[in-house]
Amino acid sequence: MRTIDFNCDLGEDCGDDAAILPYISSASIACGFHAGSPETMQRTVALCLRQGVAIGAHPSHADREHFGRVAHPLTPEAAYALTLYQVAALDGFVRAAGGRLHHVKPHGALYNQAARDAALADALARAVRDHDPGLVLYGLSGSALTAAGERLGLRVAHEAFAERRYEADGTLTPRTHPDASIHDLAGATAQVETMLRTGAVVARTGEPVPLRADSLCLHGDRADAAAFARGLRQAIEAAGFKIGTMERNA
Question: Is the pLDDT of residue 82 over 90?
Answer without folding.
Answer: yes
